[in-house]
Every structure is written in C-alpha cells, then in structure tokens.
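REQUEST
  id: r-88c1
  op: predict_structure
  target: DUF916 domain-containing protein
  payload:
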Amino acid sequence: MQPRTRAAALAVPAVAAALFAAPAAAEPQPWWAAPAGGRSAIALEGAPGTVFEDRLSVVNPGTAPRTVELRATGAWIALAERRVRVPPRTRADVPLSVTVPTGAVPGEHPAAVAVGGDGRQLQVPVTVRVTGPTLAALSVEHVRVSGTGRGTVIHYALVNRGNTVLAPHLEIRAAGVFGEVLHRAADGVPAELPPGRGVRLAEPWPGAPRLDRVRVSVTATAPGAAHSTASGTYTPLPWLLPGLGAAVAAAAAGLLIRRRRKVVRT
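RESPONSE
  id: r-88c1
  status: 200
  body:
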C-alpha cells in the first residue's frame, strides 16, 4: 500500500504523452482522459480499511492549453485536483486515493471519475472489489394482486439482502380451486441487482380468473443464492363466494330432499 499523497497534477511533455495512443475517432478530440499506464479502467482489490493510491492521466494533443474539471462519483475517491490546466502536447497526471471504509461489505463497488471540459464529458470507471466472505441472498416480499379481469396486476418487491451483485430470475405461479391458472417467467426483472438494493415490480395478468380463490406465488433464483418464494391470495369477487357457496349447499340439500321423497313414494 502506497503512502497517501496530495501532490499537484504532474505535467509530462508530449514525448512521454505519446505513450498514450489517442482513441480512434472520426474527428480529433481536444483532450482525453484515462487511468495512468494506458489502462481502460481503474480496478482495485483489497480488504476493508485499505487505502489505494493511483493516477488519472489527462492528455492534451493540441496546440492550445486545455482546462478540465474532475469530479468523483463515489464517496471513497479523493482527488488531489478538481481543476487541471493541461499545456499543449502535454499529459497531466492527477493523483487520487481510494479509501475502503472499515465496515465495507465484501463484493464489487463501482464508481467513476467524471472529467469535463470544452463541452465534452468522459467517465473513467473505478471498481473496488472488497475481499472477504460473500453472501448471496435474494428475497421476494410483499406479494399482492390488484384489479380484476384484464386490469389485474401482480405486485411484489425484490430485494438483494446480500453483499454481492446478483442476476435474478423470477417465476410466477398461481393456482386456484380448479388447478393451476398461471405459470410463467416474470417480465421487467433487472439484469443485475446490486447489494442492499430493492425494486418494486408489477406484472400484468389480463387472463386472471374472474371467479376463483387463487394463491399467487413469486419465486426468485440467482446463481449462488438460495431460492426465495413469497405468496399472496387473490379473490376477484370476495363478496360473491359466500353466496355462491350457500347457493351450492342449498341446491345440494334440495336435491337430497327430492331423492328421499322419491324413495318414500316408491
């Protein structure tokens, strides 16, 4: 681990800057930025409490000075300079430090350094992988159904309660008195769910039964994580079911009475 520094941006003449090949483009760019050493991104790995030192290079290939502003999008990143003036045909190396909090959870933590100037914006990715045991935990919560008929919608929440990014897959099932009435993969599920994040999702169900008592279950799976299932009940016309049950019971009783009378007469 390198000692923390607060050195100003170091200007390097064009001879050294030539080590950084300009990105291919249809038109020449007034400047560009990249991690020092010609890398495409800053990728770091360490335990909680680690302090990393790195550099961001801003290259001016033109014949006039350029001024750019730098801003970190992650709270762990500290920049030695927020505004840098780069002479012509020169590369300026801006020191930065990344401090991993002592309570940081293991897994990947994405961030970036935004660089802007002359109407141009670039983002240099910074990814910190915190070492330690990972926990993959996906949770389905608050399943409920609203509406009736073609306006029926299944609502639920999906939460990543672990410390690593998950790629969830969800299936929705529904079964009523007459058997299974729904079984399909859920739509609109995010491709990735970061740790500690949750989303509320809604699944249209235009083919929902109009007269049934249905149990709706949502099951989530992800590589490395145990599956999670949550359920809710759905009765489109709850006021009708007791009456329907009473009517069926009355009809059965009436049929039984008629049969008994027929037996007595014979």
